[in-house]
Amino acid sequence: MNVIIRRLYIGLLLGILVLPTVGCELSKKKDVEASSKSQFTLEVKGLQSLSDKTIFYTESSEVISTSGINNIFYNIQEYYNSNKKEYHYVLTLKKQSLSDYQKEMEIIPYDIIKFSVGATQNKDTNSFIHTVSSPVFIEFEKSYVKDGSYYLFSSNKSIDTKDFQLEGIFVNSVPIKDKKAGEETFRFITNVNESLLTN
């Protein structure tokens, strides 16, 4: 009888010691789960490589609101992953048909042959710390940047709107004067302070 009572006592003692440990482990697991936010996914293409890329993020915001030059529209979104403390940046490009008013004003519709984005200035080198450009194409007839969303770069800190600069090289998509489609080149540069279009 004493042996049975002793075994019951040892069993209860072990149970008292083990339960708090299990409780702590469960508590830790719940804390980790609570600190991890639900992730969303976004399928894009790399602007430089044009290869498929998946972005995992927990929240997003607009860095550069939708703006346009003639028939070309663009914006940049920031996608933040709070679980990894990473910021990802995505450029969206879209061509639209000219409005009747634009046609009356003889606005030239463009095709994009090159698009570049820089962010965070390095004044010592007169360049940007983060830079990415669309690729150099092999075939001239297929050398246009298509509509779509393009991955730019990532950063461990949020990049402000004022730190971005965009540059596009466009060609006329329709004949103008004595020029055939694709023969006239235009350079577009824009940042928070100014926009410039030259040919």
Provide structural commentary.
The protein has 199 residues and is an alpha+beta fold. The chain is 20% helix and 46% strand. The chain contains two helices and eleven strands, in the order H-E-E-E-E-E-H-E-E-E-E-E-E. The strands form two sheets. It has a six-stranded mixed beta sheet with strand order 2-1-8-5-4-3, with no helix packed on it. The longest helix has 34 residues. The chain is elongated. The N terminus is likely disordered.
Mean pLDDT: 86
Distance between the termini: 103 Å
Trace the largest sheet across and list its strands.
2-1-8-5-4-3
Uncertain parts: 1-34
Strand runs, count: 11
Total count of helical runs of at least 4 residues:
2
SSE string, helices as H and strands as E: HEEEEEHEEEEEE
Strand content: over 45%
Describe the structure using short key phrases.
46% strand, 2 helices, 199 residues, six-stranded mixed β-sheet, alpha+beta, disordered N terminus
Write the layout of secondary structure elements.
Elements: H1 2-35, E1 40-46, E2 52-57, E3 59-69, E4 72-81, E5 86-95, H2 100-104, E6 110-122, E7 127-133, E8 148-155, E9 164-172, E10 185-191, E11 195-198
Parallel strand pairs: 1-8
Antiparallel strand pairs: 1-2, 3-4, 4-5, 5-8, 6-7, 6-9, 9-10, 10-11
Task: Provide a brief overview of the structure.
The chain has 199 residues and is an alpha+beta fold. It has helices spanning 2-35, 100-104; strands spanning 40-46, 52-57, 59-69, 72-81, 86-95, 110-122, 127-133, 148-155, 164-172, 185-191, 195-198.
